[in-house]
Amino acid sequence: MSWKGIVTINSKDYEFTLNSLTIEELKAQITEISKVSEQKTDLIKITDTNDQNIETDQQVQQSLQDCQLHFFAYFQTDYHFLSISTQTLDFHKHWSIDWIKANCEAAKIVRQTLNANKQGLVCVVKSKPRWQIEANEDSVTMRSSFSVIALKSNDGMEVKQFGDYWVYLLKYKVVRLHKVEIDGNVYVIGCEIQCKDNVTITTQMIVTKTAIIDQRLKQSHSQIEWNAIIHHDVPLQLQELQDKAFEHSNEGQLCAAFECLQKAVKIAIDTFGSDHPYVADAYSNLGIAHSKQQKFDEALNCYEIAINICLKVFGDEHGWICNLNDHIGLVYQNQGIYDTAIQYHQRALKIRKCVFQKPTELTGDASWNLGRLCGCFIKFSFFFFFPLLFLKKKKNIKETFHTLKAVFLVKVNKIALKSN
């Protein structure tokens, strides 16, 4: 018995026949097809129409049960012909891991919606937005609201949360925007966008080829054409490798974790070149892994590469530069080089105060790191020392003060012993 299937490679469909419902048979058929499509390197991933990885015999068999013997195959060569002029995910205003994961989810939704030949709008926004939603069968109107209204998933809308970020999918052919501010990204998937009054998208508007954009929105916001490889394939592969590295590390499989992180660095460089935020992020993650294994020289090398890229791309004041200064400070701290560690933690705190203006949990963390290291209580002004006490929710004020005092005494004793 045999089964007919379809595999998509670089947007082209190829028919094939499976003689058995196993992953090895599927890989063998795709490899044969790849010779026709002139793929010159290894097959790296197979997914179904829902963008789920196909890695086992059971998943192949489940695809048959779902009547979906349609697969998508990805090869390493897919990443070498990219035009770097295509804009990737922006990290200037938003840059946290939640931002990255939320946009990975948005990219999955775009791919799934396109595969299903449907339309819609995906919004990735910081915090809960002030919107009112009015929908009918084929269209939806989004208006600004004076208060935060809880928007829940229903037949026409899906809502997902990733830390401080929310992902909204509006499943409509026509979306009307009235005086709306979207603090984040918008993905327009083949639908029509109509605007009334001012509409603000703070970061990026990524559109598919069949999308229809209101002329006023075109004039006020630049458009980025959806590129499945740059906006979906590579970011998701990098995130999957980082997630796998985290899992391997927790399971004590350190060699496997390092292999994933080193592979992420190579893919990022091969795809985007050596001076790109994705490369900086990959090196930063590799540096953290080295630091956990007390490979301090290797960790510092990774951090220095990452911070040099960030300085070129973002300038002096950016959240990633704060984080990298803290990472470098912790490396020196763990080696007992306290003077140098203090310099890096002070630099991180100074940049964070410029980036965030007001005290936040991240400025609290920077103050905490510096306080744990040097215990200079007098230097902590009311501007950022007392916000630290309130922001460390797991400790009350009295406990936090005594913890800082205890760490200070430990450091003083260590420095005294070292000098003797």
Automatic annotation (TrEMBL):
<keyword id="KW-0812">Transmembrane</keyword>
<dbReference type="Pfam" id="PF13424">
    <property type="entry name" value="TPR_12"/>
</dbReference>
<protein>
    <submittedName>
        <fullName>Uncharacterized protein</fullName>
    </submittedName>
</protein>
<feature type="transmembrane region" description="Helical">
    <location>
        <begin position="370"/>
        <end position="391"/>
    </location>
</feature>
<keyword id="KW-0677">Repeat</keyword>
<keyword id="KW-1133">Transmembrane helix</keyword>
<keyword id="KW-0472">Membrane</keyword>
<dbReference type="InterPro" id="IPR011990">
    <property type="entry name" value="TPR-like_helical_dom_sf"/>
</dbReference>
<keyword id="KW-0802">TPR repeat</keyword>
<feature type="repeat" description="TPR">
    <location>
        <begin position="280"/>
        <end position="313"/>
    </location>
</feature>
<dbReference type="InterPro" id="IPR019734">
    <property type="entry name" value="TPR_rpt"/>
</dbReference>
